[in-house]
Automatic annotation (TrEMBL), chain A:
InterPro entries noted in UniProt: AAA+_ATPase, ABC_Ni/Peptide_Import, ABC_transporter-like_ATP-bd, ABC_transporter-like_CS, Oligopep_ABC_C, P-loop_NTPase
Predominant place of localization: membrane
Localization (cell): Cell inner membrane
Domain ABC transporter span(s) in chain numbering: 7-258, 279-528
Example GO biological process: transmembrane transport
Keyword presence, Metal-binding: no
Family note: Belongs to the ABC transporter superfamily.
Name used for this protein in its record: Peptide/nickel transport system ATP-binding protein
Gene3D superfamilies hit by this protein: P-loop containing nucleotide triphosphate hydrolases (3.40.50.300)
Bilayer disposition of the protein: Peripheral membrane protein
Organism (species): Amaricoccus macauensis
Keyword match ATP-binding: yes
TrEMBL record, chain B:
Keywords attached to this entry: Cell membrane, Membrane, Peptide transport, Protein transport, Transmembrane, Transmembrane helix, Transport
Gene Ontology biological process terms from the UniProt entry: peptide transport; protein transport; transmembrane transport
Provenance organism: Amaricoccus macauensis
Stored InterPro entries: BP-dependent_transpt_permease, MetI-like, MetI-like_sf, OppC_N
Family of this protein: Belongs to the binding-protein-dependent transport system permease family.
Protein name stated in the entry: Peptide/nickel transport system permease protein
């Protein structure tokens, strides 16, 4: 049994269509997954890690993207030479896949039970009763509360974590030899992520399945990997046992990646208690009234933020952390008045932003600027970079020539080439676009910058650069930052103080170092203990 | 990876060049462009090739085509030169196509943009008005308008514009409803940009591509509508339009079919060219749609 590994990829090469940015998506990939082993395939976006997974399942968008060399052996048998009909028998039966986004991977029109049942219908001769029993059994196995009722639920009726459990149940129901998990926890909150990772480990120990786990997150890697394979632009850079790669990486790229993982050590406490308060928010409330139809009547309003107060001092970074649905994004939209709040006030230098008239609001907007989450969506694709950056000042009456000249200076400040000025946003990478977004915000010479998840759409190495830039600009321009994030590692890097939000309320607030060292509220404790790989301290590496 | 992000991708080709390359890939679209160029050229050179009034007597009535050198396409029952009518008619057809399309797209953009951007009761009111227009068949409405305002070229053009704005309006509204949720709109609001500026300078350029594609369809249907009006005898008799020629040729359809066939083919080719170009424009402007 132990002689043949479950999955063996030998010298795999995947060709891309002519005109792509490189001829091969993957080259010379060698990889083995043994029984009862979790192999993590790590890489940044564009490294070809997802294509590798699809190649094993033979789900590549052929013929444009196809395997052009190498072998993929499942239990010693070549997958590449199988016919499509034979592949259908294999998929779901002997190998299964867990996708990133369970909401889109499950059919919204069918009940959960039906979808698991379908796998059994295709691959077994069990009768109705037998199948039903098996579905209930597997749902209980993945710890879904009340499997009988979950069976009849539609995907939208259960939570994200439970949907992912259903996906796992679907993958496991035939007891496959190999499971491929493509970023299965990326779309989930940290506490849910922890549960799912634990579940995957538990299932794997129970059934001796081999797992090929694809991820970009080194925290997750540290949590579950037995062995690690690092990919970069389609090439295998380094592979080896988890301990070796995580703590003694050899290749400069792996070293750079690991060095970019934010350590969980908060910055030294800055004496800020005597700095003047720049922004004071008090008693903010916001509820979303769902608009009823003509006949259905009004539905109950959902309270997103209740009674929130905080103060932001000059030069300070205040982190707002919480899971999805905690209301943290609503906070960022209220303090910039992109959303009208129900009550409360936001004072910026003794002027209330919430009740400001249109003209006052316009001048107040200069003081509080925003950096958005998605650097692609937040830049108008039809505008040149220089116009994007100069737009704000021009709206506020700065002559066009002067604003453009200043925009070009700002590009240098955010470490972009001045040649970038005349390009359009789509010509830039994600990190570069986020720099443009930052330049646009500081072009207004604000006192406060609200950053809503500014790095969560970026690769780790780029994330580190953008965070460094933000911190650097904050210190040089004496800015205050309101930093909204779900990522506690990122918060630990940058924030002087943090407030932890749950269900629209602040459950804990204080200096980052104190909150991290001794969390008082049970929710904060849960959050902190869920940070993937928290027991792994990234080694101090000198990056060549 | 350097700390400064100075490395940029290679400079992309200019927007127009990229669009032309995508357009060119669609052979049918290129054919459409060629036909359209021929029609435009005919309109431009009408005064040079067949000088003088196209409605004057040019020879024996009902001369068949290719018999007399002076009128290669023959003459109609009043002895008017058909070639001159086709060339001068191209001017009228293009004029009607372009002006009516501009009118309908302009109304459509205005209503669709306002409805889609503001939403709420403004959207409700504007959409009920749009639906009111949509419930009446557009050609019937056009007939009514022409019956009321007379069949001068101006009222026909405006009439066609007024009956065909509903589809572009709905299209623009749908685009605006998705685009207004994009973060760049929030970013502009956050800079203090006003509503009008956000609608027309931020969102509209992003909403335009499908509308431009649709404009080619509107242009084709405008030309058809004018022809249909003329066929029913409601065209502006002071101009040599293709529809007028078909309408008058109808009387002699049995003995001299060429009087209706030739302008009919002209309409067919022109409308076809717009449809083909529309498809090419779709490839050029919405490259993602086809992947």
């Amino acid at each position: 049994m132990s002689a043949t590994p479950i999955l063996q990829i030998e010298d795999l090469r995947i060709s891309l269509p002519a005109g792509a940015d490189r001829p091969y998506a993957l080259e010379h990939l060698n990889l083995t997954v043994n029984a009862g082993e979790i192999v993590c395939l790590v890489g940044e976006s564009g490294s070809g890690k997802s294509l590798a997974a699809n190649a094993v399942m033979r789900l590549l968008p052929e013929p444009r993207v196809h395997v052009s060399a190498g072998r993929i052996l499942l239990d010693g048998e070549d997958v590449c030479s199988r016919s499509e009909a034979e592949m259908r028998k294999l998929r779901g039966d002997r190998m299964a896949m867990i996708f990133q986004e369970p909401m889109t991977a499950l059919n919204p029109q069918k009940t959960v039970g039906w979808q698991i049942d379908e796998v059994l219908r295709l691959h077994t001769d069990l009768d109705r009763k037998g199948r039903k029993a098996r579905v209930l059994e597997i749902l209980a196995d993945v710890h879904i509360p009340d499997p009988a009722s979950a069976c009849n639920a539609y995907p939208h009726q259960i939570s994200g974590g439970q949907r992912q459990r259903v996906m796992i149940a679907m993958a496991l129901v035939m007891n496959p030899r190999l499971i491929i998990a493509d970023e299965p926890t990326t779309a989930l909150d940290v506490t849910t992520q922890k549960q799912i990772l634990r579940l995957i480990k538990e299932m794997q120990a129970k059934h001796g399945t081999g797992i090929l786990f694809i991820t970009h997150d080194f925290g997750v890697v540290a949590e579950i990997a037995d062995r690690i394979v690092v990919l970069r632009l389609g090439e295998l850079v380094e592979s080896g046992p988890a301990d070796q790669i995580l703590n003694r990486p050899q290749h400069p790229y792996t070293r750079a990646l690991i060095a970019a993982v934010p350590a969980l050590t908060p910055p030294p406490h800055k004496p800020l208690s005597d700095a003047p308060v720049v922004l004071r928010a008090s008693n903010l409330r916001k509820s979303f009234a769902a608009r009823g139809g003509l006949l259905s009547g009004r539905r109950n309003a959902v309270v997103a933020v209740k009674d929130l107060s905080f103060a932001l001092r000059r030069g300070e970074t205040l982190g707002v952390v919480g899971e999805s649905g905690s209301g943290k994004t609503t906070v960022s939209r209220i303090v910039t008045r992109l959303l009208e709040s129900d009550s409360g006030e936001v004072m910026i230098h003794d002027r209330d932003l919430i009740r400001a008239s249109r003209a006052d609001l316009r001048s107040l907007r200069k003081d509080i600027q925003m950096v958005f989450q998605d650097p692609m969506a937040s830049l108008n694709p039809r505008k040149r970079v220089v116009d994007l950056i100069a737009q704000g000042p021009i709206v506020h009456g700065v002559p066009k020539a002067e604003a453009h000249a200043r925009a070009r200076e700002l590009l240098e400040l955010v470490e972009l080439s001045p040649a970038a000025a005349d390009r359009y946003p789509h010509e830039f990478s994600g990190g570069q676009r986020q720099r443009i977004g930052i330049a646009r915000a500081i072009a207004m010479q604000p006192r406060v910058i609200v950053a809503d998840e500014p790095v969560s759409a970026l690769d780790v190495s780029v994330q580190a650069q953008v965070l460094r830039l933000l911190a650097d600009l904050r210190d040089r321009l004496d800015l205050s930052l309101l930093f909204v994030t779900h990522d506690l590692r990122v918060a630990a890097q940058l924030c002087d103080r943090i407030i932890v939000m749950q269900k629209g309320e602040i459950v804990e607030a204080g200096p980052t170092a104190e909150v991290f060292a001794a969390p008082e509220h049970s929710y904060t404790q849960a959050l902190l203990s869920s940070i993937p790989g928290r027991d792994w301290q990234p080694p101090q590496l000198s990056v060549a | 990876m350097s700390a400064t992000d100075l490395d940029l991708t290679r400079p992309a080709a200019s927007r127009a060049a990229v669009m032309w390359r995508r357009f060119r890939r669609n052979r049918a679209a290129v054919l459409g462009l060629v036909i359209f160029a021929a029609v435009a050229l005919a309109a431009l050179l009408a005064g040079v090739i067949t000088p003088g009034d196209p409605l004057r007597l040019a020879g024996q009535p009902l001369t068949p085509p290719l018999t007399v050198a002076a009128s290669p396409f023959g003459t109609d029952q009043l002895g008017r030169d058909i070639l001159a009518g086709i060339l001068h008619g191209a001017r009228i057809s293009l004029l009607i196509g372009v002006v009516a399309t501009v009118i309908s797209i302009a109304i459509g953009i205005l209503i669709g943009a306002v409805a889609g951007y503001f939403g709420g009761w403004i959207d409700d009111v504007l959409m009920r008005i749009t639906e009111a227009f949509q419930t009446i068949p557009s050609f019937v409405l056009l007939l009514t308008l022409v019956a009321i305002f007379g069949s001068s070229l101006t009222s026909i053009v405006i009439g066609i514009g007024v009956v065909s704005w509903t589809a572009p309006a709905r299209m623009v509204r749908a685009e605006f409803m998705t685009l207004r949720q994009r973060e760049f709109v929030d970013a502009a609001r956050n800079l203090g940009v006003g509503n009008a500026s956000i609608i027309f300078r931020e969102i509209l350029p992003n909403a335009l591509p499908p509308v431009i594609v649709f404009a080619s369809v509107v242009m084709a249907t405008s030309i058809l509508m004018e022809s249909a009006l003329a066929f029913l005898g409601l065209g502006d008799a002071n101009f040599a339009s293709w529809g007028n020629m078909i309408g008058q040729g109808r009387a002699v359809l049995r003995e001299a079919a060429f009087c209706t066939v030739i302008p009919g083919v002209a309409i067919l080719l022109t409308v076809l060219s717009f449809s083909l170009m529309g498809e090419g424009l779709n490839d050029a402007l919405n490259p993602r749609q086809k992947k």
